[in-house]
Design a protein that fits this description.
218 residues; alpha/beta; 5-stranded parallel beta sheet; 10 helices; 58% helix; disordered N terminus
């Protein structure tokens, strides 16, 4: 098994399906492909025994006893759950499918689900989740770097990514250009970047919004 496959199959795939036969079939298929799988018969069983934080991908039946799959998904979304979800339904229910996709589902499969369609959907979901996780980790790293900056260095950073030149920053902050260059050097070092485009990308990861209008008159 290559590195890509190891990464794809390491995250937990959670199956929530009330039909025992379907549930066992899904679990057997996924485990045969070396996926880490746990299964539950209802949303309430998952809520009492499962952990949202450990989910890499969820396969969720639309029609579950008690709380429906759609209702459960919409509820956990409000609690900050953003891992990819694949819905399954025994009916080609267009309104439900549209509702699921608008809520953020990555796929909506109609039973009986073709094995390859399911495997393709799971691989795509885990690949998407891996990309999301990497972005979250990069953002967390950028925020940690940003926190090491002094207030003055943060001010210089914001003006740099806004496109101001050293002379403009010097005039706006009432410091010499040599001091601006010193602060810029510190910013690059502390943010662990080597170029302006890299610095801008790291700043974007902070999600601080558009830099405030810091331009000076004249």
């Amino acid at each position: 098994m290559n590195q890509k496959q190891r990464e794809d199959t390491s995250a937990q795939v959670v199956v929530i399906e009330d039909d025992v036969g379907v549930r066992e079939s899904l679990v057997g298929l996924l485990r045969s492909m070396k996926f880490n799988v746990t299964a539950f018969s209802s949303a309430s069983e998952f809520s009492s025994k499962g952990q949202l934080g450990s989910v890499g991908c969820m396969i969720l039946d639309v029609r579950l006893p008690g709380q429906s799959g759609i209702e459960f998904y919409e509820e956990v979304r409000t609690r900050g759950f953003h891992r990819p979800v694949i819905f399954m339904s025994g009916h080609a229910d267009v309104p439900i499918a549209v509702r699921a996709m608008k809520a953020g589902a990555v796929e909506f499969l109609t039973k009986p689900v073709r094995e390859q369609d399911l495997l393709d959907a799971v691989h795509a979901a885990l690949k998407r989740d891996s990309g999301t996780t990497m972005k979250e980790e990069a953002a967390a790293s950028a925020r940690a770097d940003f926190e090491t900056l002094t207030k003055r260095e943060q001010e210089v950073l914001i003006r740099v990514v806004e496109g101001q030149r050293n002379r403009q920053i010097s005039t706006a902050l009432g410091i010499t250009e040599a001091t601006v260059k010193l602060h810029r050097g510190n910013v690059m070092q502390k943010m662990h970047v080597h170029s302006l485009p890299e610095l801008v990308r790291h700043y974007d990861l902070l999600e601080l919004g558009e830099p405030a209008n810091t331009s000076t008159k004249g």
